[in-house]
Amino acid sequence: MIPVAFSYARPDSVDGALALLAEHGEDATILAGGHSLLPVMKLRLGAPEVVIDIGRLPELRYIRVQGDEVAIGAGTRHRDLEASDVLGSDVPLLAAVARTVGDPQVRHRGTIGGSLAHADPASDLPAAVLALDATIVLRSPRGERQVPATGFYTGMFSSVKEPDELIVEIRVPRTGSAGWAYEKFTRRANDWAIVGVAVVDGRVGLVNMGASPLRASATEAALADGASIDEAAALADQGTDPQTDVSATAEYRRHLARLLTRRALTTAAG
Ligand SMILES: Cc1cc2nc3c(=O)[nH]c(=O)nc-3n(C[C@H](O)[C@H](O)[C@H](O)COP(=O)(O)OP(=O)(O)OC[C@H]3O[C@@H](n4cnc5c(N)ncnc54)[C@H](O)[C@@H]3O)c2cc1C
Question: Has keyword Repressor (predicted)?
Fold first, then answer.
């Protein structure tokens, strides 16, 4: 399919991108890696009049230690995450989750900011960022604000991000040696998750278990109260609302959430 005609702008700075967003309002959209936006446009599920390409801005592509956190530029590619020595030692969950996203082509183009902004409950990185208790930094002409990942998602493909805001940075606590694991259940290698479970330091993020990425709150509360892994994992689908689709029934997804949570918690416990 061919997208509806649009005009294309490639600003040379974040400020330039923000000015264009402010000028064109809801008629404009941001292009980062394009791996979610272009399919949306080709299927004509979206028809922006102006596409603002931030995919080659070096100021958005970095991974650096900042005190107790690692700061990651929104334009950092999935491949950068998986290959990062800093993440490998300080936030190994994030590097491992990035390694499971799609195939090498997808990982070389897709960005963490694009993945979080797209707000697809089937994506891997949002659940990891939730489990990590990360902070998402948004910038607009009105200034900058920091939103906890746990308060970022509002529903299917939606978040608290305003149309004139850019995700500029993701701040992730350095978890160091805390136990972690990612369990992703797919039909074939490189597929999207039917269900995924990200665990770090007793927190649990769920992929594809509702309209938006979720935390398994009942499991987390049970663990905090001293429940065994088996007891806590049995609660992993509480408060979730998975869909039935061509890949799985909702009931099968619930089963997977409980099973994968048990596996991930067991791995994380060493
Ligand atoms: C074949 C294929 C397989 C895939 N498999 C997986 C998978 O297994 N797991 C998975 O998690 N993902 C998968 N993806 C999605 C991939 O990870 C995308 O790269 C990602 O979801 C979007 O990132 P992007 O940089 O390509 O964003 P884009 O497609 O450029 O943008 C996506 C959306 O985010 C907005 N946006 C982008 N950057 C910003 C920003 N900094 N601030 C504000 N808004 C922004 C855009 O306006 C757009 O609405 C797959 C994609 C493809 C094509």
Answer: no
**Ligand 1 centre from 110 Cα, in Å?**
5
Which of 20, 21, 31, 35 is the pocket-test mutation for ligand 1 (most atoms within 8 Å of CB)? 35
* 1 has a pLDDT exceeding 80: no
The residue whose C-alpha atom lies closest to atom 53 belonging to ligand 1 is 35
* CB of 31 closer than 6 angstroms to any ligand 1 atom: yes
Task: Report the CATH number at residue 109.
Answer: 3.30.465.10
Calculate ∠ Cα 202-203-209, nearest 5°: 135
Strands 135-140 and 63-66: unpaired
- pLDDT digit string (tens) for 178-210? 999 999 999 998 899 999 999 999 999 999 999
Write down the mean pLDDT value for the chain. 96
Measured between its terminal Cα atoms, the distance across the chain in Å is: 48
Our answer on whether the CB atom of 129 is closer than 6 Å to any ligand 1 atom is no
Q: Is there a domain that residue 1 lies in?
A: no
